[in-house]
Amino acid sequence: MVEEHATREESRANAEKHYKGINRKWIKTDYKKKNAKKLFNKEKEEMKCSFCGNSHYDHEFTSLICGKEEKICDKCVKRFSEELSSNEIS
Questions:
Q1: DSSP codes joined into one string, 53-73
Q2: 90 Cβ contact partners less than 8 Å away, ≥ 6 residues apart
Q3: What's the pTM value of the predicted model, to 2 decimals?
Q4: Residue-level pLDDT at 80
């Protein structure tokens, strides 16, 4: 799940807690909150599994295989593999 913070300082402190040294890599941009949210939502939409609709931003899966048109997450690959294995013709 993506966390929202009231201030940039809270965001930076949270990022540093999870990724030691990351604060040294932040750069100043001209993005306003509205534009950043729009860009984030666009990327989130583009990085969704075509089968289950989950996004890696929601921590629903760990990897995404991307084809020309469709994307499939590791959870769907596992689920489909299990279904195929259980339905094999003897």
A1: --BGGGTS-S-EEE-SS-EEE
A2: none
A3: 0.56
A4: 93
